[in-house]
């Protein structure tokens, strides 16, 4: 029995591309690519099989269905994160430098996959007491151990985990939502069927909202990076006061 292979679309007259044996890792990677380009809602076993050049039934050897596929997407995103900086930071560099490093690692992952990042917040974590976006046992172990090695008590490390994850999740969900809206183009109005009250958002103007109209250029400016840095600094300052007590 030969192993199922994934092939891409083959243009007429071109040589066959190299064939890659299907694996769970390859299927999950393709699912992440699909979500990045087309969104979570469009991810189906049939569509993913088409992307990989195989029948949908071939995928069930590696994933148990769409729910397992979504779990795999989250696991794949978590695999891109590492809360252990290794030789890049040492305990003597201080916990502030460590949290800065982790925050930017998580933000880079979220901005690389803005359509997939909400899954990190909504899928069930490995344990009920874990919090997104640091939601895997491996990541939380690395995070807590790093803080304890930098002088935190167990209670302080647990509180830091709660505060830090709350900050990251709130900011990055907002920021990735902004990116998704900026990247999406609504070609035609939504079909609302027989709804008695049609959607008239397309007819809405700011003519009756003078303050909003005046401030729209300011509201439209992108200050995400600046706001992230400022909020992160504020969080670290508050944590410093707590840890120093």
What does it look like?
The chain has two domains: 19-77, Arc Repressor Mutant, subunit A (Orthogonal Bundle), CATH 1.10.10; 83-182 and 222-244, Tetracycline Repressor, domain 2 (Orthogonal Bundle), CATH 1.10.357.10. Helix 5 (95-112) runs parallel beside helix 8, helix 7 packs across helix 8 and helix 8 packs antiparallel against helix 10 (224-244). It is built from ten helices and two strands; from the N terminus they run E-E-H-H-H-H-H-H-H-H-H-H. The longest helix is centred in the C-terminal third of the chain and has 30 residues, at 154-183. The protein has helices at residues 24-38, 45-52, 56-59, 66-79, 95-112, 117-122, 137-149, 154-183, 210-219, 224-244; strands at 5-6, 20-21. It is mostly helical and 245 residues long. Strands 1-2 form a two-stranded antiparallel ribbon. Helices cover 57% and strands 2% of the residues.
How would the blueprint of this fold be written?
Blueprint: E1 5-6, E2 20-21, H1 24-38, H2 45-52, H3 56-59, H4 66-79, H5 95-112, H6 117-122, H7 137-149, H8 154-183, H9 210-219, H10 224-244
Antiparallel strand pairs: 1-2
Helix pairs in contact: 1-4, 5-8, 7-8, 8-10
Indicate the low-confidence ranges by residue numbers.
7-17, 185-195
- What is the overall number of helices? 10
Rg over C-alpha atoms, rounded to the nearest angstrom = 23 Å
CATH superfamily of the largest domain: Tetracycline Repressor, domain 2
Overall geometry: flat
How many domains?
Answer: 2
Helix and strand succession? EEHHHHHHHHHH
Helix content: 55-70%
Beta content: under 5%
Helix-strand makeup class: mainly alpha
Terminus-to-terminus distance: 66 Å
């Amino acid at each position: 029995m030969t192993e199922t292979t994934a092939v891409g679309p083959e243009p007429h007259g071109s040589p066959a591309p190299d064939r890659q044996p299907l694996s769970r890792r390859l299927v999950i990677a393709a699912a992440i690519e699909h979500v990045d380009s087309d969104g979570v809602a469009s991810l189906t076993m049939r569509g993913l099989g088409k992307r990989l050049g195989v029948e949908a039934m071939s995928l069930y050897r590696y994933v148990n269905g769409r729910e397992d596929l979504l779990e795999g997407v989250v696991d794949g995103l978590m695999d891109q994160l590492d809360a252990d900086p290794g030789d890049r930071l040492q305990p003597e560099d201080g916990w502030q430098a460590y949290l800065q490093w982790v925050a930017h690692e998580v933000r880079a992952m979220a901005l690389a996959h803005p359509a997939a990042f909400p899954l990190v917040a909504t899928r069930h974590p490995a344990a009920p007491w874990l919090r997104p976006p640091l939601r895997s046992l491996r990541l939380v172990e690395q995070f807590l151990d790093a803080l304890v090695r930098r002088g935190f008590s167990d209670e302080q490390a647990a509180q830091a985990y709660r505060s830090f994850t709350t900050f990251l999740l709130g900011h990055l969900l907002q920021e990735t939502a902004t990116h998704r809206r900026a990247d999406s183009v609504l070609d035609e109005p939504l079909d609302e069927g027989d709804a008695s009250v049609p959607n008239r958002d397309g007819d809405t103007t700011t003519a009756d909202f003078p303050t909003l109209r005046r401030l729209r250029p300011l509201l439209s400016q992108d200050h995400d990076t600046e706001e992230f840095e400022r909020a992160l600094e504020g969080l670290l300052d508050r944590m410093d006061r707590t840890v120093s007590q």
